[in-house]
Design a protein that fits this description.
The chain is 39% helix and 21% strand. The chain is of the alpha+beta class.
C-alpha cells in the first residue's frame, strides 16, 4: 500500500480545504481557497454555490499539482461539508437561488409558528435537538412560505454535500444521517427524515434526498469533473459526512467515552455514543454518526475562537505590527503575550457569548463582556481571559454532555485552529482537570473525510481500522493541579454569573436594548 493515497474535500463555511494523505495519516499535499459570503439583509447569510464550485476546482487542481505524483495514485475521495445549509435545485440540478447557510437568522417568526403546532418536548423527542432558529427546518418553512414560485420549481432541496457530489459525478442524490443534525428534522431513532415535521411545514418528502448510510461509494469522477478538478476520470467518490462528525472520525473518536473539543471559528464538543442517550433536560444535541448505525452527542459554541479574532482585529495593533515585522502569525504573538498573565488572568473573567449561548442553556440573548475588571488589569490579562472564558463555555458543554453520558470522558482530544496554541491547550487541560491530546494532523475534518472515503471505497475493513491507522497523537498535555484548583473557583463564578443574568432575563433586556442602535 506504499503508493496509495486518499483525498478529501472539507467544504466549510468560509472556504474549502483539499487534502491528499497517505494510509499512515501523513499529509502529502493540501490547498485552500476562500469563497465569499453574502448578507442581503440583516441576519441573512447566503452563499453562491456556483462560485463555491469554482473555488473547489481551483483548490483541487493546486493540491494535485503540488502532489507531484500521478493523480491515479489517489484512490478515493471523501467529503466533509457544513451542516444545516441547503440549496433548492431544479430537475437539471441547477440552483434556483443562493444557498441559505446554517448561521442565517431569518426564521424567528417561522420557528414561533412551528411551535404552535408542536410542543418543544415532542420536537426534542423526535429529533434529539432543542428547537432553534439555527436549524434548517424553520428556514425551510421560510422558503416554502415566502418563495412559493421557486418552491413550485424545486425538484430537490439539497444539503451542500449532495450538490457537490453530483457535480463530481455521483450517480444518486442521497445524503446520510451525520450530515443532517443541523437540519433539525431528522427522526433520530430511525436516522431518517421525520414525516411528522415535514407535514407541519408543508414539505413533500419527495423533495428531499434519500437518507442512506454514511461512508459509502456513490459514483466516480466524471469526465467533466475530471477536466474541472484535476482528479482522474473514474476515481471513486464517497459520501463522507457532516463537518463535526468528520472531525470526530479524524480525531480518532470512534468509541464511546471518547470526545473531541473543537476550537475553531465556532466551538464544539463531539462524542461518539453507541446508542441514543436520554436527555430529559434537553441540554445536548444527539445526531447521527459517520459510523453507520451509531450516534454522536454534540454541544455547540457559537463564538469559539472568533472572540480572540475580534480582539485581534480591534485592539491588537502592536501585536499585528510585531507579527508583520517578524513574519509570524499574529496569534502566536497574542498567545505569547497572554502567557505572561497568570492563570485566571489576575481575577478577570470573560464571557464569550458574542452570538448567544447555545449548548446547554440555549440563551440566544446572552452577550459577551469582562467581569471583575479593575485598574490592575492590562492587555495581557484581557487576552488570556478571552482564551480562558472561551474554554469555560466549552467546559460548560463538556459537563452537560458527561451528565447525559452518566460518566466522565475517558479521552479528550483537541482540534481546530485553537489547538495550534500551546497556551490554549494547557488552559484546556487545566480547566477540564484532565489530559488533552493534540494530534499530529490538526485538520481533523479533512482527515476524517479521507478515512470515510477510503472505507467507502473498500480500502479499510472498518472506519475504526482506518482511524486507528491514520490518526496519530502528537502530544499529551497534562493538567497542572494548582492551576486546576484556581480554575475551578473561577469557573464557579463564571457559571453562577451567567445563570443570574440568564434566569433574571437580564441577557434578554440587554439584547432588546441593543436593537435600538
Amino acid at each position: 500500500m506504499s503508493d496509495i493515497y486518499f483525498a478529501s474535500l472539507d467544504i466549510g463555511t468560509s472556504g474549502v480545504k483539499v487534502l491528499v494523505i497517505n494510509q499512515s495519516g501523513k499529509i502529502i499535499s493540501k490547498s485552500y481557497r476562500v469563497y465569499p459570503c453574502e448578507y442581503p439583509k440583516p441576519g441573512w447569510f447566503e452563499q453562491d454555490v456556483i462560485t463555491m464550485w469554482k473555488m473547489i476546482c481551483e483548490a483541487t487542481k493546486e493540491a494535485i499539482y503540488k502532489f507531484n505524483i500521478p493523480a491515479k495514485n489517489i484512490k478515493s475521495l471523501g467529503i466533509s461539508s457544513q451542516r444545516g445549509t441547503f440549496i433548492p435545485v431544479d430537475r437539471d440540478l441547477k440552483p434556483l437561488m443562493n444557498s441559505i447557510v446554517w448561521a442565517d437568522a431569518r426564521a424567528d417568526r417561522e420557528l414561533d409558528l412551528i411551535l404552535e403546532d408542536i410542543s418543544k418536548e415532542r420536537y426534542h423527542e423526535i429529533t434529539g435537538v432543542y428547537p432553534s432558529t439555527i436549524w434548517a427546518y424553520p428556514k425551510m418553512k421560510w422558503f416554502i412560505d415566502n418563495k412559493k414560485e421557486l418552491f413550485e420549481k424545486t425538484f430537490k432541496i439539497l444539503n451542500g454535500q449532495e450538490y457537490f457530489l453530483s457535480k463530481l459525478g455521483a450517480e444518486e442524490l442521497s445524503t446520510d444521517p451525520s450530515s443532517l443534525t443541523m437540519n433539525g428534522m431528522l427522526e433520530i431513532d430511525k436516522l431518517d427524515w421525520s414525516k411528522e415535521l415535514c407535514d407541519i411545514i408543508g414539505l413533500p418528502m419527495d423533495k428531499l434526498p434519500a437518507v442512506g448510510t454514511p461512508a459509502r461509494m456513490v459514483g466516480k469522477i466524471s469526465k467533466q469533473a475530471s477536466n474541472e478538478t484535476g482528479f482522474y476520470e473514474g476515481m471513486p467518490i464517497a459520501i463522507g459526512g457532516g463537518d463535526q462528525q468528520c472531525t470526530a472520525i479524524g480525531a480518532g473518536v470512534v468509541r464511546e467515552g471518547m470526545a473531541v473539543v473543537i476550537l475553531g471559528t465556532g466551538g464544539a464538543v463531539v462524542a461518539h455514543i453507541d446508542s441514543r442517550k436520554k436527555d430529559e433536560n434537553q441540554k445536548v444535541v444527539i445526531g447521527g454518526s459517520c459510523i453507520p448505525g451509531k450516534w454522536d452527542m454534540e454541544g455547540l459554541q457559537a463564538t469559539g475562537s472568533s472572540a480572540l479574532t475580534w480582539w485581534q482585529q480591534n485592539f491588537a495593533a502592536d501585536e499585528n505590527n510585531a507579527a508583520d515585522a517578524l513574519g509570524l502569525n499574529v496569534f502566536e504573538i497574542i498567545s505569547l503575550e497572554a502567557s505572561k498573565s497568570p492563570p485566571c488572568s489576575n481575577g478577570l473573567i470573560f464571557f464569550p457569548f458574542f452570538q448567544g449561548q447555545t449548548t446547554p442553556n440555549y440563551d440566544y440573548s446572552a452577550r459577551g463582556g469582562f467581569l471583575g475588571i479593575s485598574f490592575i488589569h492590562d492587555k495581557k490579562d484581557m487576552m488570556r481571559a478571552i482564551m480562558e472564558g472561551t474554554v469555560f463555555e466549552l467546559n460548560m458543554i463538556k459537563i452537560a454532555m458527561e451528565d447525559v453520558l452518566q460518566k466522565e470522558f475517558c479521552s479528550l482530544r483537541v482540534s481546530g485552529g485553537g489547538a495550534k496554541s500551546n497556551l490554549w491547550n494547557q488552559i484546556q487541560a487545566d480547566i477540564y482537570g484532565k489530559p488533552v491530546e493534540r494530534l499530529e494532523v490538526p485538520e481533523c475534518a479533512s482527515v476524517g473525510a479521507a478515512i470515510l472515503g477510503a472505507y467507502g471505497c473498500n480500502y479499510f475493513s472498518s472506519i475504526e481500522e482506518g482511524a486507528d491507522q491514520m490518526v496519530n497523537v502528537a502530544q499529551t498535555i497534562e493538567p497542572i493541579e494548582s492551576n486546576h484548583k484556581l480554575y475551578r473557583k473561577a469557573y464557579n463564578i463564571f457559571e453562577q454569573a451567567f445563570t443570574v443574568l440568564s434566569k433574571n432575563n437580564i441577557n434578554k433586556e440587554i439584547a432588546e436594548f441593543q436593537k435600538i442602535f
